Amino acid sequence: MNMLEIPTKTHDESRQGEAYTPVGEESVLFSKKFYIESYGCQMNFSDSEIVASILHQEGFGATKHFEEASLILLNTCSIREKAEQTIRKRLTEFRKTKEKKPDLLIGILGCMAERLKAKLLEEEKLVDIVVGPDAYRSLPTLIAEAETGQKAVNVLLSREETYADISPIRIDSNGVTAFVSIMRGCNNMCSFCVVPFTRGRERSRNADSILAEVQDLFNRGFKEVTLLGQNVDSYHWYNESTKTSVNFAELLEKVALISPLLRVRFSTSHPKDITDDVLFTMAKYKNICKYIHLPIQSGNSRILQLMNRTYSREWYLAKVDRIKAIMPDCAISTDIITGFCSETEADHQDTLTAMQYAQYDYAYMFFYSERPGTLAAKRFTDDVPEEVKKRRLQEIIQLQNELSKKSYTNDIGKTFEVLIEGESKKDSTHWKGRNSQNKMLVFPKKNYTYKPGDYVQVYVQDATQATLLGEIIA
Ligand code: SAH
Ligand code: SF4
Ligand code: F3S
Fold first, then answer.
1. Which atom of ligand 1 is nearest to the CA of 371?
2. How far apart are CA 437 and CA 351, in angstroms?
3. How far apart are the first and last CA of the chain?
4. Which of its termini does the chain have fewer beta carbons within 10 Å around, N or C?
5. Is 193 touching ligand 2 by the criterion CB < 6 Å?
6. In what order do the strands lie in the sheet with 362-367?
7. How far is the CA of 270 from the centre of ligand 2 (A)?
8. SS3 of 166, please?
């Protein structure tokens, strides 16, 4: 998770709602300019860097100002209805620009493109290009088609595509932390989830290409990588030439061995797949961050079964115990969906007690949003009234706020190694950076000559619900 300064986030205003615009200083060198905004999960953000790379090859430079772009791209998310509404609203804003500039091309990328396919062209008349997550290599062809006035669509999903050979362009980067995509798609069929439909079958990226990309990042001064996948623990790559395979624990170890000065994070773990091997590998290497995002979704076993999560409440909580037994200092965060089909007050209470048990350091919390085509939409009735969903969500958020506060307050008096990521947004006399547990720390620069990318020891003096405040110790 790259959670910046607000660990406890709620439904759609969280990581699935943020727009992100990569920008390159190099854009001045290019005659044509593109503007891209990303919505949704980190996979999408990471994909936008691949798209930027493909467009660079075609002579397009990135711009921060959509008014000067000849190509506007929205990398979209379908996870909840609200995510799609946000994108449709944004499109109506671009309509005005297009009215003034008829040559402007507008493209929809990502999960909404995949879910709605050519229907998007009918529904959103101003859209010229629709490209699914596995079809970005065809962007140059699609742009050329669109330039001749045709509507261009490619939403083919692939069983192989991992964009392994494309070096992502790290635009709008802090130069310290980067995402590295290690797999694509998802083979789980959580009944509420649209991802298996929008992202296709799970496939793992060539381990050698992952290691080469991470090594290159490290050589260029990056100090932290987050290995990304919908379900990283089921990473499995078979090397045809050596007849050997690499699983996630092994990949993690290989990445950690690149340098002790390189931090390694990963996201997301499915509770059913995270193994003791992974936990022991984490414990073995100081530079593998002691932080696991372990989505529970619900604390009630009947609901978990309807969700097709394939674990029970007891099984999940035992996994939490296991993590804490192997790494007592490991932070755990989670995702929770409230108000899933048939959820009763008692089921909801089970979620609250599971949160108490797990003592999450932070959480992403959502109310259930039915997605067309999913198993839940086909089989169950979305029968929890919206006010009830909202009230339950409020209760969950309130409890998590208390848990987060407790977790952060507990850190007062401790000293952490912090990787400086940049200046604090609020105060340029302060640095910000995270500890291994992924908590954000803010501390005065003082007269030290540290810079982003340096590790410092920070003594925590105070805490808010979302940030630790401290001081560098020599
Ligand atoms: N692969 C990740 C999840 C990706 S989606 C994983 O398995 O953990 C991120 C989160 O969005 C999910 O964990 C879930 O909590 C939430 N989510 C997914 N579908 C949803 C829906 N239909 N309504 C509400 N929240 C949903
Ligand atoms: Fe969706 Fe489940 Fe796959 Fe996560 S593991 S992306 S929640 S289907
Ligand atoms: Fe959204 Fe697609 Fe990610 S639906 S959460 S952008 S995989």
1. 22
2. 24
3. 29
4. C
5. yes
6. 9-10, 362-367, 331-338, 291-293
7. 8
8. coil
The amino acid occupying position 245 is S
Q: Is 268 in the pocket of ligand 1 (CB under 6 A)?
A: yes
* 126-130, 251-255, 347-351, 408-412: the lowest-pLDDT one: 126-130
Helices (H), 154-247: 195-199, 207-219
Place of tokens 């959502």: 366
Which ligand is closest in space to the CA of residue 83? 3
pTM (two decimals): 0.93
Element (DSSP H or E) covering residue 301? helix 301-306
Mean pLDDT score, 156-164: 96
Strands 203-204 and 183-184: antiparallel
- 389, 337 Cβ separation under 8 angstroms: no
Q: Work out which ligand 2 atom sits closest to the CA atom of 231.
A: 5
pLDDT digits (tens, 9 = 90+) for 199-250: 999 999 999 999 999 999 999 999 999 999 999 999 999 998 899 999 999 9
Structure tokens at 158: 């692939």
* Cis peptide preceding 268, ω within 30 of 0: yes
Domains of the chain: 27-154 (3.40.50.2300), 183-407 (3.80.30.20), 415-473 (2.40.50.140)
Taking only the tens place, the pLDDT of each residue in 332-371 is: 999 999 999 999 999 999 999 999 999 999 999 999 999 9
How large a percentage of the chain has pLDDT more than 70? 94
Q: Is the CB of 168 under 6 A from ligand 2?
A: no
Pairing between β-strand 129-131 and β-strand 105-109 as defined by DSSP bridges: parallel
pLDDT at 29: 65
